[in-house]
Amino acid sequence: MTVPPEEPGNAWVDRSCPTTQAWADEATHRVIADANRSADTHLHVFPLPPEWGIDLYLKDESVHPTGSLKHRLARSLFLYGLANGWIREGTTIVEASSGSTAVSEAYFARLIGLDFITVVPRKTSPEKIELIERHGGTCHFVDIPAEMYTEAERLAAETGGHYMDQFTYAERATDWRGNNNIAESIFGQLAMERHPVPDWIVVGAGTGGTSATIGRYIRYRRHHTRLAVVDPENSAFFPGWVTGAADYNTGMPSRIEGIGRPRIEPSFVPSVIDLMVPVPDAASIAAMRHLNDVTGFCAGGSTGTNLWGVWHLVARMLREGRRGSVVTLICDGGDRYRHSYYDDDWVAARGMDLTPYTAALERFLATGEWVPPKV
Question: Cα(189)–Cα(327) distance, rounded to whole angstroms?
Answer without folding.
Answer: 11
